[in-house]
Design a protein that fits this description.
- It is a single chain.
- Helix 2 runs parallel beside helix 5.
- The protein has a 4-stranded antiparallel sheet with strand order 3-2-1-4, with helices on one face.
- It contains 5 helices and 4 strands; from the N terminus they run βββαβαααα.
- The model has no long low-confidence stretch (mean pLDDT 93).
- By secondary structure, it is of the alpha+beta class.
- It is elongated and about 55 Å long.
- It folds into 2 domains: 70 residues, Double Stranded RNA Binding Domain (2-Layer Sandwich), CATH 3.30.160.250; 55 residues, no CATH class.
């Protein structure tokens, strides 16, 4: 699961740079210049993906055949929470079963699956392991 989507950067008629995501129609933002637009795009993308999950939706895959577009990644904390939530949804487990497998209370499992509740990396890693996933870190040049 990679939370990287391609964005269209184009001049905004009102000035600055307009950013849209073909795969995420609700993610539209603007920046005063390219650097500001990239920062705004990361935030807009994260918020749009969070909103899709909160509404019970499934995140669309990012199409790889879109040449000439700019790859934008959500922030790492959001990406990890989205990964846990998607893995949990695919697992068919209940929250109480996830908690049992983690050796935690069900309230803590609920917090792990809450996009608005911060969760420490070690606990996210443990939850992903229980769900048959692992975190792989990648570092790349900035857009």
């Amino acid at each position: 699961m990679q939370y990287v989507y391609r964005a269209v950067f184009e001049p905004d008629p009102d000035g600055g740079v307009l950013v849209t995501f073909p795969d995420i129609p609700g993610a539209i933002t603007h920046g005063a210049d390219r650097a500001d637009a990239i920062a705004s795009a990361r935030e807009a993308l994260g918020l749009a993906l969070r909103g899709m999950i909160a509404e019970g939706g499934v995140l669309p895959p990012s199409r790889e055949d879109q040449t000439g577009l700019v790859e934008i990644a959500v922030d790492p904390a959001t990406a990890l929470k989205l990964a846990v939530i998607e893995a949990f949804a695919a697992s068919g487990l209940s929250k109480s079963e996830l908690a049992r497998r983690l050796g935690r209370q069900e309230t803590e499992a609920r917090r792990i699956l809450d996009l608005d509740h911060p969760t420490k990396l070690a606990l996210i890693e443990a939850a992903l392991a229980v769900l048959g996933r692992e975190i792989v870190v990648s570092v790349r040049d900035a857009a």
